[in-house]
Amino acid sequence: MNAMPRAISPANTPIKIGLVNNMGDAALLATERQFTRLIEPAAHEIDVHVRLFYLPEIARGDAAQTHLQGGYEPIEALPHAGLDALIVTGCEPVQPNLMDEPYWPSLVRLIDWAKDNTISTIWSCLAAHAAVLHLDGIERQRLPRKLAGVCEFDRVSDHPLLRGVKEPVHVPHSRLNGLSSSDLARRGYELLTQSADSDVDAFVKQYKSLFVFLQGHPEYEPDSLYREYRRDMTRFLNGQQDTCPALPDNYFDRKTNLLFSAFGKAARAERTPALVRHFPALEKVRLSRADWAASSSRLFSNWIFHIAEAKARQAHLAHEHVIV
Length: 324
Hints:
It is a single chain. It is built from eight helices and ten strands. By secondary structure, it is an alpha/beta fold. Strands 3-2-1-4-5-10-9-8-6-7 form a ten-stranded mixed beta sheet, with helices on both faces. The radius of gyration is 21 Å and the shape is globular. The chain starts with 14 loop residues before the first strand and ends with a helix.
């Protein structure tokens, strides 16, 4: 096949990515910022436009609703948005069974639409669990304890999405449930990154669209896990959750771990909401050297190039057809 004309090469092919932001009110703006900040530098010379969408069934407070009305569109607008790709975030579940969530019918329609109408779609965290449940009936499994921290994974595939991603692959995780690697493999999913204990991080499946599933959060900012740990500790002290949260793994340095261990001991001894005032402030916290920014940027750079290359290829074929 002839080389693509310069005018329709990947570097000169603008792409449109839709972000369906399903996070709760407290994390709505942060999630929007995290993904857009990750996409922009990862795009390099490729011209990327991001449009924001929401599921109407997710309950919102007044401030969040106002924010959505100012820059978001309902998912009903997706078919007319001219998108090339999607990123669909998770949200904190309310029901034990995902299919009982009020937004489930809309999410199912979104999954089915994305299969045939995007070049690629990323399903993040709970959205990944929902997608494989709908597509192949794979149910997530409750973990013995919450997986929170910066986890290390091995590359178990030569997929182009991992080109240039160095090992070990560091990725922040924050979840109570997981997916079985054997269940995924039996149903035709290709595992990309996996830990020694068989916990899966990223995996893909090719439909007309390349579906990319991320159980972790490569989009997280350096202080994201700190803020989640503070949120969980506040819930424990307020009586909203039964167990005192464990420290995020491989995240704080040794001195900070000792500081938080002492706070956790005090929280278990005197469980009172007033104690949260003494939660160590962010400026007193030091993180470990586990850094996920480089691998996250590389993964998203590869993903964006895949989209641009596929779109340029489609344009080239259409160009050849016109010439013939």
